[in-house]
Specification:
By secondary structure, the protein is mostly helical. Helices cover 73% and strands 0% of the residues. The protein starts with a helix and ends with a helix.
């Protein structure tokens, strides 16, 4: 997997290219989508932990009965969605917006 510094280096070289417009680079896009998937999953885990741990709720000032299970599910869905986009990007498969809706 590419390291963040490698992705930034590739992106900067694309920005500085004077002989052609910036084109979508599947490796960079896939890495960014994967990072979104990882971040989304991390947030889902955090929301689940807040929902189930009374000490954390107390520290954050939430009521004992406060839960965020609905948002845990929503964010988990987006983690899966971004992971799939990353995988498709690595395989150089690009879906149009219309194909994603069907």
């Amino acid at each position: 997997m590419l390291q963040l510094s490698e992705v930034e280096k590739i992106y900067c070289s694309l920005l500085k290219a004077k002989d052609k417009p910036i084109k979508e680079n599947h490796t960079v896009q896939s890495h960014l989508k994967w990072q979104k998937a990882v971040n989304d999953l991390s947030l889902a885990k955090g929301l689940f932990k807040i929902s189930t741990d009374e000490k954390i709720k107390d520290i954050l000032g939430y009521a004992e009965n406060a839960t965020f299970f609905d948002w845990t599910i929503v964010v988990s869905y987006y983690s899966i969605f971004h992971a799939v986009l990353a995988l498709l990007g690595m395989k150089k498969i690009k879906l149009t917006h219309q194909e994603m809706l069907t």
